[in-house]
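All the exercises in this workshop are built on plain-text protein records. The record below serves as our worked example for the rest of this section.
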Amino acid sequence: MVQKKNFKNTMACSKCGKTILLKGNRKYCKECSKIAIKEKDKRWKLNNPERTKELKRQDYLRRKDYINKKNKEWYEKKKKELGYYPFKIFEEQKRFGGNRVKALERDNFKCQKCGSTRLICVHHIDGTGRGSKIHNNDLDNLVTLCRNCHIKIHRDLLHKARGIN
């Protein structure tokens, strides 16, 4: 025999009108309660920006060591698999069309101006690198330079563009 529930202790949700059981001083159904709590949190955060900032900082400090440890483990694992850090993959595809490592190997990982092997980077000869709308990532347009020579080239280009000798 199936027992019928007592529907005397029910009311309508204040927001959507759905029938809910009375429990304490509840005014909303489960779905509307979640929305109301989120709205209340938003209002509190808007009215208490300094406290919100402080709480975010405390939460970050509490979790910082764990997050840093996990990130470091993941990056080291990927570095072992790939041979270099994973963020370089996206950067390489975006800036050099996958030809960065090929250009470095072609130039024997040496600066083509001074021969240095320290702090090497890849430069777009025609200036279609970062910041330009169209990228020319052909191997013929890429050259390996050390950081100092790369800075000198861009400084000279900037001075030339501004009319400074």
Observations:
- Helices lie at 30-47, 49-82, 87-96, 100-106, 147-162.
